[in-house]
Amino acid sequence: MLYRCLLLFLLFAAGARVPGQSVKPASPTMDEIRELPDTTLRLAFHFVALPDGTNFVRDARDSLVVAHGGHEKLRADVLMYYLLRELNHRFRVALLDYPPSRDTKLRFALVGGADRPLESAAFYREGEPLRPVAEGFNIVFTRYRGRGRPDAATTGTGSTTIYVYDRLQTYLAGSHDTWTVARLIGHELGHALSLDHTFKCDNPCAGRGFDPLEECYGECTDHNGGSGAVNCFGGSPRELMMGYGSQLHLTVCEVERMWAFLLR
Ligand SMILES: [Zn+2]
């Protein structure tokens, strides 16, 4: 027990940022992570309207909800509730190949707290500058205006902004799917917390839980920008979150890397 307490102290001491002092980041093993308190990632949601002004709404009595048969996912607070629930479930059971637990020990909450979810939501006209929240991850629901129509994007390691594209249109068309949306956010958070695609040739976790070639039909990529020449979708029965496909699971190496990033 003494050893365990000492170890925890050292982990947090190494994770603390001391001004003017360079400290090598802690790289906890999964056994060590299992003994740490959960880490909660706080999310702020940003909803950008379509060109005609249509947007997710704040009020259950809004005419848009009424016109769509009471479609509750058009309400920002309800949508956020489902996404948080799905993300928390996903990260509780995501870990593969670690018999003691499937829990990544990562949790999700709203930056403004659970009691008033709309305080964690911001609404915009199309083209209006975003007002990102500094102390959390910013999840931006918006329309994709370029070519290629990705489902979601982030700029990579260290980013705190995640874009989710064209979901309002799918809800207006009748979809009630939040499972896919949480899956997309989880994948992009993985990038933001330093993870590469499983089919990236030089993925630092390659060989520990997956083979990049098996993740994309024998064609790994040298970047995180997408599939490349071969469509990697469904490339592995492992259903890894950082591959393309079901995106359910994380390997021990990937969870250790995310925690090392968070404790840096
Ligand atoms: Zn990706």
From TrEMBL:
Transmembrane segments: none annotated. It holds the Pfam family Peptidase_M43. Residues 170-262 form the Peptidase M43 pregnancy-associated plasma-A domain. One of its GO terms (molecular function) is metallopeptidase activity. It comes from the Bacteria. Residues 1-16 form the signal peptide. The keyword Nucleotide-binding does not apply. Keywords: Signal. This is Peptidase M43 pregnancy-associated plasma-A domain-containing protein. It comes from Neolewinella marina. The lineage of its organism: Bacteria, Pseudomonadati, Bacteroidota, Saprospiria, Saprospirales.
